[in-house]
Amino acid sequence: MPSMLYTHATIITVDSTRRIIEDGAIRVQDNLITDLGKSAVLKGRHPDEDEVDLSGRIIIPGLISTHMHTAQTLLRGTADDLELVSWLCERIWVLQGNFTEADGYAAARLSIGEMLKSGTTCFLESMFADRYGFDGLARAVEESGIRGCLGKIVMDIGGYAKKGAWAMHPGLVEDRETSLGGTMRMWEKWNGAANDRIRVWFGARTPGGVSDGLYREMTSLSREWDIPITMHCAEVKADRDFFHSKSHTPMSYCNSVDLLGPSTVLVHMVHLDDSDIQALAASGTHVAHCPTSNAKLASGICRVPDLQHAGVNIGLGTDGAPCNNTCDLLQEMKLAAIIHKSISYDPTAVPAESVLEMATINGAKALGLADSIGSLEIGKKADFVALDVRGIHNQPWHNPVSAVVYTATGRDVDVVVVDGKILVQNGELLTMNEQEVVKEAQQRSREVVERAGLSHKVKSRWPVE
């Protein structure tokens, strides 16, 4: 692959010194950053290079979403403004229980296209069910050029927490062989594929959906084969009730089945005791913060300032489209920076710089990829995003980090480079046919709703003529 110079941008490196380079340039050779600095200096060093002029843009490391449900993007807007039991048991699980593998592939392409166009270059799929077709998800990652850590579901109980009313749709229930065995088979087939852009993870169901024995079998395999784990945890009050019924706090339970450690990403983590926070810090376990999902589903607000104070590594995730309605991590950053100020009455809580770290280098640490992505440094993978901040809605700006976190959205993304390849240019996808992806997603979403028998519920609440 020929080398390329990206010049005349404001570059937020998120390196160890957190330096910002005005009128900066990045040189990419193959899939690596091979030089970085002032544009004039790099152009002097590399006078014959092809050049992409990014004047008026801010370059940031590629955004990393540490919690994402790719299948659910097909269900955007199907379960708005419902409380959690109705949302999950009467809508989302019923819809997902009627998916085909073709639906799973279409949903993955829709998710990936949206993520790329809004600046996400790497994501952690949390819990991909067998019926969605894991091969299709991996193929969508391979074809699109994005980087994906793909959690395949591990479960053996079809309930949720300790509430009998919270039963999974039969179409989603899996046993040990399908879930754990299937994950191992997919790990053997796909882990490290697509020039190591694909990693396969265990996507464990929430406690109450997995027996203690299966958790311990999974954590043993995790250590033996170096396969990371992600799991929803302490998201809602019902989760706390479940742990209490076991005479545990959330983290004492996780510790009892060997879930804690630097290869685990626990998601949501809203309902924690002080002792839980200490256990997270001591074990090096990572947290994925999903403020929009937690707010929209009325789950609560994660204790992010307390976690930060304790030294816990926190990444950021959009969660699924039915509980967020967008895969735009830039919008997620803004809420993450604002919501903690609101409840703490402290405007200095969780500043913009901390949130950009969550969405970049912290996410890379959570995924075990901080040696190769998450910051812009010589020798790291060429994963970066250029935001066009020349428009009236972004002007003026004085602090580029504030401009990114508080003002920019995914619609300002101009160029996206992953593994050295330009995947988005002038805001347009280069590796996917966007119209084709959207058309198929529209059709398949309607078909899923019809198969699930929910057409009379998934519609406008106001009269439509």
Automatic annotation (TrEMBL):
UniProt GO MF annotations: deaminase activity; hydrolase activity, acting on carbon-nitrogen (but not peptide) bonds, in cyclic amidines; metal ion binding
Domain called Amidohydrolase-related: residue spans: 58-423
Taxonomic lineage of the native organism: Eukaryota, Fungi, Dikarya, Ascomycota, Pezizomycotina
Highest taxon of the lineage: Eukaryota
Protein name in UniProt: Amidohydrolase-related domain-containing protein
UniProt keyword annotation of Hydrolase present: yes
PANTHER family: AMIDOHYDROLASE-RELATED DOMAIN-CONTAINING PROTEIN (PTHR43794:SF11), AMINOHYDROLASE SSNA-RELATED (PTHR43794)
Matching Pfam families: Amidohydro_1 (PF01979)
Alphabetically ordered keywords of this record: Hydrolase, Metal-binding, Zinc
